[in-house]
Write a structure and sequence with these properties.
The chain is of the alpha+beta class and 205 residues long. It has three helices and seven strands. Helices cover 39% and strands 21% of the residues.
């Protein structure tokens, strides 16, 4: 069974041969040690796209922060089947799990570190998985660009809804003002009528 995968391009850098320069890397290629990215987000997007194409899910395993300013300086991404469930390692007591654990001790991972110039470089890459890989033929997870586009669309829709709500409030305020003015005018009219009736009654007497 073949699954059609759309080719995508990510802007990265290559440090091969001691030289560094911008280049376009097809995400159909797999990661390798020495691959450089402009940002941690770009590295993560690249690995997630690679994982989607190969047939596994990813998650962030660990991060390391700078002692100087607290910023992230390294990130380790791995297969979501990395590690073991702690309950499954305990012996001597039978435990009934509500759902099956997805962790199988898979070692597949990628480690990216931030260099002094702000670039992010792949310093370790483990390709092998200890479980079958499944390429989904259905809808794939949205890419970061698709998520951003969806957020912008929803933000625009929310902005338009707020504008319509503001217009409705203004119309309601205008209507209430009209009702109040009409009520005051009607009250004055009633008072005048009552006053005139009393004057007529006084004259008759």
């Amino acid at each position: 069974m073949e699954t059609l995968i759309e080719d995508k391009v990510v802007t990265t850098e290559s440090s091969a041969g001691g030289e560094s320069g911008l280049c376009e890397v097809d995400t159909n290629q797999e990661p390798y040690e020495g691959l450089i990215f402009e940002s941690e987000e770009a590295a993560r997007a690249f690995y997630e796209e690679y994982a989607r194409r190969v047939g596994f899910l990813t998650r962030i395993i660990s991060s390391r922060k700078s002692e100087r300013d607290g910023s992230i300086i390294s990130r380790r991404l791995a297969c979501n089947k990395e590690g073991f469930n702690l309950n499954s390692q305990k012996t001597g007591r039978v435990r009934i799990r509500k759902r099956e654990s997805k962790r199988e001790g898979c070692m597949a991972m990628i480690l990216v570190k931030r260099e002094k110039l702000g670039k992010w470089v792949v310093t370790k890459f483990v390709r092998e998985h200890n479980h079958p890989l499944v390429i989904s033929s259905g809808n794939s997870r949205p890419t970061p660009d698709e998520k951003d586009r969806k957020i912008r669309e929803l933000s625009s829709e929310l902005h338009r809804a707020n504008q319509r709500l503001a217009a409705c409030r203004e119309q309601l305020r205008t209507f209430m003002t009209y009702i109040e003015e009409h009520t005051q005018s009607l009250s004055r009219t009633v008072e005048n009528v009552v006053h005139n009736i009393r004057e007529i009654e006084s004259e008759d007497q």
